[in-house]
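User: What would this chain look like folded?
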Amino acid sequence: MGFVGGKAQAIALLVLACAAGGIGALWQGCDLHELVIEREVREDASGDAAVDTRDTADEGEGLDEVQEAAQAEAGHFVVHVDGAVGKPGVVELTGSDLRVFDAVSLAGGLLDDADTTQVNLAEPLSDGAKIHIPHEGELSGQVEQSLSGQAQTSGATGSGEATLLVNINTASSEELQTLNGVGEATAKAIIEERERGGPFATPEDLMRVSGIGEKKFSKVKDSICV
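Assistant: Here's the prediction, encoded as structure tokens.
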């Protein structure tokens, strides 16, 4: 029994030692594993920070390139805006894809009586352009003036044709008959009178002809000459 009890004690001590050793090894293993995990976490954090820094730098460079491209595309425009706008005059604009409306807005915008029926506000802006915004009724007034000018020109042309007067000293019978109220008999009498009494000195001398009084003369006086 003593041997058996001693053997049992020895086995128990051995088990305890092995258990203690296992627990120590397990503890060491846990510490080592935690150290490995902590190291990996630090490396990952360091790597992410480096990546983030590079990404930020790349984004900054990209933004600079976009800004440079936008500045390169932007143009400088100087245009003259007048008419029915708030502040007529010369305006300066800088930018890309600018339109006539942008220049009009910078010139004070459209007045209440602005007539944009003949103005394309969406037209691309051109440097050195002149933009005129007419007032209501301005275009119709221009049309009336144009028609009036045409009428005056036509009248002047008609007057010019009337200046091709009939010379009562040299006109033939046919030419004399083109005069208002002058027929074949009167034309013959005019020719006979100038042959008999000599050339007419003035248009009024036409009343020397028998049958031509003041009333008849008034009808032809603006159409004859000597």
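The helical segments are 2-73, 100-106, 138-162, 173-176, 184-197, 214-220. If you want, I can go into more detail on any region.
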